[in-house]
């Protein structure tokens, strides 16, 4: 575990554990190295607990994604077919009701998002790892991305669309948040 100190235009010291387990400390530009070291030492217990928690979460995340092997071309191809059989009917049902038509649907093995939408090109990309979710959560992601074809950001209008077209979106969002991504 490395400790990385970055001087910034900030008024206080802060720290966080990043994905690889390193500690990143943000410090005001003129703060002495001694004060930063004292801050780190005072928070040593927190660092150790947070580091352990982060590493456990990362292990859980790896185990989650390992449930769907996608290393071989044949595995990816099969996953695309399986996901398309779930997503296509949802698109066929929801898109006309919402008055939208995606230009292209893409499936990728993304681990940072369940779905992505480009409102300008109307292209939607879904993570192959959606296959690890319950069907109603997949439907939530589909409606979410279709809603972005109407409203690009997550403002009140976007959530009004979600309430109208998939009222259980809050429950689905909670369920997918509990599942690692």
What's this model, at a glance?
This protein is α/β, with parallel strands linked by helices and 181 residues long. Helices cover 51% and strands 17% of the residues. It has helices at residues 33-42, 44-66, 73-98, 135-148, 156-165, 169-178; strands at residues 3-8, 14-17, 23-28, 104-108, 115-118, 123-127.
How would you describe this protein?
The structure is a single chain. The protein is an alpha/beta fold and 181 residues long. Helices cover 51% and strands 17% of the residues. The chain has helices spanning 33-42, 44-66, 73-98, 135-148, 156-165, 169-178, and strands spanning 3-8, 14-17, 23-28, 104-108, 115-118, 123-127. A hairpin with a 5-residue loop joins strand 2 and strand 3 (23-28). Helix 3 crosses helix 4 and helix 4 (135-148) crosses helix 5 (156-165). The two termini are 23 Å apart.
